[in-house]
Amino acid sequence: IRRQRQMCIRDRGHLAQQLGPVVVDEPDGRAPHRGAAALRQDNAGIASGIATAYLTALALHGESDVMIGRLLDFVGDLSEEFNAKVRQVEEVLAKDPDDAFAVLGEGWVGDEAVADALYCFLRSPDDYRRTVLTGANTQGDSDSIACIAGAVSGAYNGIAGLPAAWVATVENHELLATTARHLADVEESQS
Fold first, then answer.
1. Is there a contact between 20 and 148 (Cβ–Cβ < 8 Å)?
2. Which residues of the chain register pLDDT less than 70?
């Protein structure tokens, strides 16, 4: 955690990416809160890390239509700055990406990156490729936005929703597929 904390201090826009894997398996549902608090001290940044983990958890359960409201409830009053940015997503969903990102921001800080990623996902929840490419083709912190959007979309759509060519050519694809199967087996055995 010390190394990650130092990385976050140097590059504060990437906390949301780093916490995506911390997702869900705490009985009290507070694991994302604890992980984010260990890495960051400002509340908008902490909320961004929590949001990435929580949005991924919601996506795993197929809950795209309630994400904004559930996310705002879950984050609570931790950061009004973060909450205001997330509320803007609903306002820009009908806009094209350039216009939406002009409102949401370029994603250089966590609340903007999460809002941008949520926009990318919600405008095409059933299309992983379109979600990721929308995030990757921004003028801002496109790798962070695409990473967060891809995590949420991947959780929502599963492996079958990923472009086969992308799966076959991603670095370490066999290791990733094996790890994913093992994680799915663990989840099924605990259900």
1. yes
2. 1-41
Give residue 114's pLDDT.
97
Locate tokens 């759509």: which residue? 157
Neighbours of 80 (CB within 10 A): 11
Q: 50 with 78: CB under 8 angstroms?
A: yes
CB 146 within 8 A of CB 132: yes
- Angle ∠(140,145,148) on CA atoms, nearest 5: 165
pLDDT of residue 27: 41
Within 8 A by CB and 6+ apart from 31, the residues are 22, 23, 24, 25, 53
Place of tokens 């909450």: 83
